[in-house]
Each structure stands twice: as structure tokens, then as C-alpha cells.
Sequence to fold (428 residues):
Amino acid sequence: MVRKRQEQVLTKRGTATRQRIVETAARLVYEQGARGTSLDDVMERTGTSKSQLYHYFDNKDALLRAVIQWQTKRIIGAQTGAIPALDTFEALKRWGDMIVASVIDNGGRGGCPLGSLASELADYSEKARVLLGESFDLWEAEIARGLDAMKVRGELAPAADPGELATAAMTALQGGKLLAQTQRSERPLRLAMDMALENIARHLKPKRGPRRAR
Amino acid sequence: MVRKRQEQVLTKRGTATRQRIVETAARLVYEQGARGTSLDDVMERTGTSKSQLYHYFDNKDALLRAVIQWQTKRIIGAQTGAIPALDTFEALKRWGDMIVASVIDNGGRGGCPLGSLASELADYSEKARVLLGESFDLWEAEIARGLDAMKVRGELAPAADPGELATAAMTALQGGKLLAQTQRSERPLRLAMDMALENIARHLKPKRGPRRAR
DNA sequence: CTAAAATTGGACTTACAAGTCCAATTTAGA
DNA sequence: TCTAAATTGGACTTGTAAGTCCAATTTTAG
Fold:
């Protein structure tokens, strides 16, 4: 968690102000995009002044990087909060359902906060691109962690590669979110998550009792 | 193909100018994004004037819509040009390889021209969103066409739904492109396309002779 | 308490971008 | 040929956005 600007110590008040700026900026950026969100927007919604923004961040790009890091923690935190571990196929199915259900939230508008930023910033800010790449890695690692536990317990075939399965699932999630946002329909996201889950189910080892799900 | 502005007849020269504007704008928008491309950029690169842009397009949004339609035709045309029909699993594999190889083109930079525009414009321009939704439908229809042929020939199980398989493949393609662009690696795209192809292979009916591929 | 550091207000500069406007030139078609 | 329509040049307006600057206020720590 590179913080930079630590030559300057933040007081309690300063920390609160900085946090308020980051969270508000995150919401605005999610709704309007990075380029579509002006610093004046952020100032107005946070009740801060220009000098405050530039006191806590070197420039707009630095603020956007803080937004990326905050969103990354928020998203992964929300996921582990709802489903502590993706280490059973049942948990994976609930995870998929949760992702699909998220389309309703904003009436179909808004894709994945990280995916949208990645698309907008990857070729615009090298620092942001690297950060977003790491964000996806972290998110995928959380998924791979559950798959790995399944593999250790012998529920997934030895040949299954948790890291690759997690990455494939992430591509499905991102592509599904994008199409759902574009077509204002949960259909593509549902099909994407079903595909990702089936891609994992391929490596499930049959167990005594109940049959392979789905 | 809604053209609008047909109250005004275009001469041969006018058509050429308009086309030059659209193609150049498409390249700039692909490289810099829609918001990152100014009309002055387009003017400079096409050697046109402000009045020409506004002569052929109502406003910037209308130009962007023309870009979307042109890219849609270009992408689908390029695909059918390289692989006339995705009606064998071999053709599908070549298609997947072609998609993966496309990452090299711009040194990893640049995602899918349509996907990038969708992410940027879906919540910004309703007209553009609808158009992009239709673009994905057209592209998917081209994929579904091949799958349907396989189904008719009995190579795909009757339960297989070409439309759903095509949509799932499109989400994999888009998500894979996005992650590849973000991480400057073809790995996520390769895993995505493998997943999409496997998702189709699930419905392959075994045929005499060679075993199920992959 | 008091000096140094952190925090804040807000005006100002500079750059750029979308869109308007009008006049000049070229082309098409009768 | 001639005239109306299409095409083009380019200055201009208006709005916005990032970033700078300096002074005022508040807080922290010795």
C-alpha cells in the first residue's frame, strides 16, 4: 500500500478529509467516469477547496490511483464479507448469483468499478494501469484461494489450476458486466457466470452421495 | 443503417470527406478514447475544418455513432474475411487463436474498439449505448450462425443454444481483452477463449474417427 | 504558552474543447 | 452557361477544467 506524500504527517482531521475526498471521488468516477469527473465536482460534493485536493494529492491522477486502491479493498472486502470463502461449489454458485444480481443495483447502469476504470485508464495512465493490474490479481487471488482449498481437499482434480480458473472467471465477470451494462440486461452476465462455473465444474471430482450440481 | 442528415445530398467529394473523417476519428478514438479525442484532433489529422465536421455531423456524439457503426462493420468484416464461417470446431479454434494473437498488434495496448467505447459511452450517451448493444448483437449473430450450422448438421447437441453460446463467448472475448490490455499480457485472453471454446465443446457430439479435440 | 506544521479558502492563470457563424469557393444539374 | 446547393475556411464565443499561489486559520508538540 504505497501511500507517498508521507513527508507530510496527517492529523486525525486530515485523514478524515482525505478519506472523504477519496470515497466521494470514487462514487463520482463510478457514475461519470474518470475524465467525466472534474475536481470541481469533487470539491462541491465534499465541501472542500482546491487547495485541499492538492494538499492531499499531487494531482488528479494521484487521486484516481487512491480511488482505485480504495475500490479494490471495498470490492474484495464486500465479497469476503458476503461469502467468506469460495471453497465449495455451492459457495461458488452463490457467488455467481450475487454477481448477476448486482446488475439490478443501479438499474443496469454502471459496470464493474475496476473494469470501467481499467478500460478508461489503461492506455492513459501507466501508473493507474499497473495498479489496476494488481487489483485484478488480488481479486483473482481471493477466488483462487477458495479453489485451492477445494483442490487440497481433493474436490478438484489435481490437474486443475486455481490461478487459471480464477483468471478465466474474472474475464467472464468483466465481459459479462460490460455487456450487461451495454444492453441493460442481466442475460449476458448470467451466461458468463454460468460458463465460468461450468469451467470450474469440469474439474470437480464426483463425491459420494449427491450428484454433481448444475 | 440509419444515416440521417439525408435532407442533404452528398456528392462524391462529400462522401469521401465524410468517410475520411469517420475512419480517422475511429483510429483516434481507439487510441485516445472518445472523451480524449477532440474535434481539433480530428480536424488536424484529416485536414478538414470545423465547418466540415459540423456539415457532415450534427455534433460530436453523432460522429461517435458513425464511428461505432463503421467499427462494427470493419470488425465483423475482418472476421468473416479471415474465417468465412465458424461452423466447425477447427474454425472456432482458429478464431480463438486469431483473437488471442490480436493482442500483439498494438503492443498490448488498446482493447476491443467496441468494448472500449461501450465502457466509456454506455452511461454517457443513450443513443451510443443502444447502437453498441446492437453491434454486439450483430457480432454474436455471426458467431451463432456458425454454431447453428453445426447444430443442423448434428455436430452440436440439440440442447445447445447457439445464441447463448455466442453471447457467452463474447463476454469471454471482451473480458479477456480488457484484462489483457490492463496487464499487458495475452494470458487472460487465452484463458478466456479456451474457456469459451470448451463451453462450446461441451455440446459437441462425438463423431466417428478422431476423438473430441482439445 | 508558543512556534512550527498542518489545514483550509478561494481567487487567479492558462489551456483547451464544443459549438456558432458568415462568407467564400466549388460542384451539380437544368 | 447559370444558378442553387454543397462544400469549405477559419475566426469567434462560451464554458470548463487542471493546476498555481498566497494568505488565513487551526492544530500539534515541546
